Amino acid sequence: MAIFQRGAADGLNIVIPHGEQRYYDLRPTIAVPRDSVIDLDGFFGLHSSLASLRPLWQQQRLAIVHAAGSPDPTRSHFDAQDYMESGTPGLKSTPDGWLNRALPAESGKPSPVRAVSLGPNCRALRAVRVRQSPSRT
User: Fold this and answer.
1) Number of H helices, E strands in the chain
2) How far is the C-alpha of 125 from the C-alpha of 96, rounded, in Å?
3) d(CA 5, CA 73)
4) Can you tell me whether residue 15 is helix, strand or coil?
5) Quick check: 97 and 125 in contact, CB under 8 A?
6) Gyration radius of the chain's alpha carbons
C-alpha cells in the first residue's frame, strides 16, 4: 500500500518524532502532545487519528519513508507533486503515473480492485487511454 497525501499535510504531525526534544522546542504551539502519540519505536509515533495503522507496523507490513523528496530542484509545489505522482522527476511530458505503470507488472493473481484513487487528481493512477478503432467484420 502506498499513501500519498495531497495538499497541506504536515508530515511531522502525522509521523511524529516524539523522541526528539527539538521537535517540541521548535513547534511550541503546533507539536502533537507526547501523551497522544501512538508510539511505534520509541522515537517515532503516529498521530492518534492513525492508530489503526499501528497493527500493520507491528506485523512489519508498514514502512514509513520520512523526510524523503525528489531529486528535482523545482521550487514549485505543483511541479514537485506532479513529478512525485508521475515517477519521472524533471520530465513534464509523462502521460501516465508510476502506479499505473507498476500495476501490470504485478506478479501473482491480480485482484479486481488493485488500486483506488480518492479524488479526481491522482496522477499516480492516471492511465493512458488508447483509442481503439472499430473492428471491421
Assistant:
1) 4, 3
2) 7
3) 20
4) strand
5) yes
6) 19
Residue at 7: amino acid letter: G
* Per-domain boundaries in the chain: 9-68, 71-132
pLDDT string in tens for the chain (137-residue length): 566 666 667 889 999 999 999 999 999 999 999 999 999 999 999 999 999 999 999 999 999 887 776 777 888 878 888 888 888 888 888 888 887 777 766 655 665 556 655 556 666 665 544 444 444 44
Give the separation between CA 99 and CA 30, rounded to whole angstroms. 33
- Tell me the H-state helices in the chain: 21-26, 54-58, 77-86, 98-102
Closest CA to 37 of 5, 15, 59: 15
> Strands across the sheet with 15-16, in order?
15-16, 45-46, 38-39
Q: Which residues pair with 16 in a beta bridge?
A: 45
